[in-house]
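Project standup — Tuesday

K.O.: blocked on the structure for the chain from last sprint. Re-posting the sequence here as requested.
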Amino acid sequence: MELNKRQAARLERISGELATLGPCLPGSVVVRTGRCGKAACSCRADPPRLHGPFRSWTRKITGKTVTRLLSEDQLDDYQVFFDNHRRLKELVAELEALSLTIVDADPRWKS
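H.V.: unblocked you, prediction finished:
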């Protein structure tokens, strides 16, 4: 199947960017603060001094949700891995859309 110049350029750009991605970590990272259950704790004061921040990384492993707490240093070190995974998903979606465009243009579908 022949690609037109625009499709070939898009494919080359996507492939090139995929080749530059480093390690990727799937899942989501949440940073939370919160209150505990102790009535006399400073987290219940006015204004409250909340506990945390607590950084958690959540992902699915064989259908089960797995969460790990991250230190501030770990989050700083791994943030680029999370960013790479987000970009990977965007590039894969763009590649899939391009592939659908190529297949939809195939004249054999119109028969």
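K.O.: great, moving the ticket to review. The mean pLDDT is 94. DSSP finds two helices and three strands in the chain.
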